[in-house]
Design goal:
The chain has 155 residues and is mostly helical. The chain has one domain. The longest helix is centred in the middle third of the chain and has 29 residues. It is globular. It starts with a helix and ends with a helix.
Length: 155
């Protein structure tokens, strides 16, 4: 396993807001540098699965003092931002692999970003299986989704 892969995987599937932001950013950078020559669908499947996970944001996560009423608004905005970072990574993968379904996967949210976090969260969680199916179908079309082991032995 490459060192980069191990490092990125250490951050995936975290409920910590900072680690969630780092993992989304690292995945985006990694797939951008790899380009279309390497299919990193497994990293994207992990991000799509992470859309279902709850992020725990506490007042102590902020580096400055805030009031409890401010915290509610900040928390809602940060949770949306973290979810969108994951969606953006999926869209970037779609652009790299020239997959229109993945490039525009955010259309599945139907403008719920403008809603409250509770409404947006429902749509984000519903997006996870849709994004997963698009990622798998895309990798299968390219022949990189669990390729035939005999083909790997020849290569």
């Amino acid at each position: 396993m490459e060192k980069k892969w191990a490092y990125i995987q250490a951050f995936l599937s975290s409920r910590n807001p900072t680690k969630s932001i780092i993992s989304s950013s690292l995945v985006r950078r990694y797939i951008q540098q790899c380009g279309a020559k390497n299919d990193n669908y497994r990293l994207l499947l992990s991000l799509a699965n992470d859309l279902r996970e709850k992020i725990d944001i506490r007042m102590s996560d902020f580096r400055y003092e805030i009031e409890s009423d401010e915290f509610f608004l900040l928390k809602e905005n940060y949770m949306k931002d973290i979810a969108l970072l994951k969606v953006y990574a999926i869209q970037e993968y779609g652009a790299i692999t020239e997959n229109e379904e993945l490039m525009w996967v955010s259309d599945e949210l139907n403008g719920s970003l403008l809603s409250s976090w509770k409404e947006f969260e429902v749509d984000i969680k519903a997006l996870a299986p849709v994004a997963t199916s698009y990622i798998i179908a895309s990798a299968q079309r390219r022949g990189s989704f669990f390729p035939d082991s005999s083909a790997e032995a020849i290569a």
